[in-house]
Fold this protein.
Amino acid sequence: MAVKHFMQFRDFTRDELGYVFQRTRIIKDRFKRYQPYHPLADRTLAMIFEKSSTRTRLSFEAGMHQLGGAAIYLNTRDTQLGRGEPVEDAAEVISRMVDIVMIRTFEQDIIERFAAHSRVPVINGLTNEYHPCQILADICTYIEQRGDIQGKTVAWIGDSNNMCNTWLQAAEILDFNVHVSTPPGYEVEPERANLFGTDHYESFADPIDACRAADLVTTDVWTSMGFEAENAARQEAFADWQVDADMMRVARPDTLFMHCLPAHRGEEVAAEVIDGPQSVVWEEAANRLHAQKALMEYLLLGRIEK
Ligand code: CP
Ligand code: NVA
């Protein structure tokens, strides 16, 4: 049977995502009640990082531990991958030693080549193109706070980056709308976002217009990891795309604000928004832990009735 991976959001159907959201709630609830739950005893997760991380590393490592398994952190700089060992060879070897692999890297092609040679499930912990684990946690957070996301409107302000692409994929699968506003020259590239083409997003020249009547306003850094050389140009181009109180005001009174973090107050978001009453960024970060536990449980054990 083909191994199931989570390399981009559309690797899961609406039904599978619904199951993972439901498991996230159950697993989180048990954790909050201090009930041990060790379905992944004796299972090992390898985490391969080619870019920096705080939340992704911590949530996968702590999550695997809490499910009874073990996690091994590999930084490509300290492995033979950093000295030119082919990713296909690394996949053949690593997947014979562990039960599941998470990779944070540059091009999506790298993780796909790894998965093609892996005997075990591969999870995308962020690539230049996508950040599916983050959107899993973000949507769990939305559901927890406000209920079903179907039919709702998410305003994406800023760069058409890995986060934006993943929101767009999620909108098609879960049937909600995304209002996107990017500076000229940084628009969504539908092919790179790998959309089904179901028109679940609309582009707005003015970020204020994108935020009107939105149920959720969200943004991310102006310069993603790997694009540091473009930082100066981006600071200039994105100056009018800071999520501020005026943008939140034209949304709804109960509109949520999310940011995957790390954030730069005074750049992509005003301090009064990220630290304000509509912001759920800490809940969002915490849900990485629970959503990824549900994801690993599903990839390793399939659907369970517990
Ligand atoms: N949001 C997120 O993925 O954070 P890290 O880069 O700290 O893992
Ligand atoms: N878009 C950001 C997300 C960081 C979690 C990046 O890729 O650097």
Remarks:
- Residues 53-56, 126, 134, 260-261 surround phosphoric acid mono(formamide)ester (ligand 1) (CB under 6 Å).
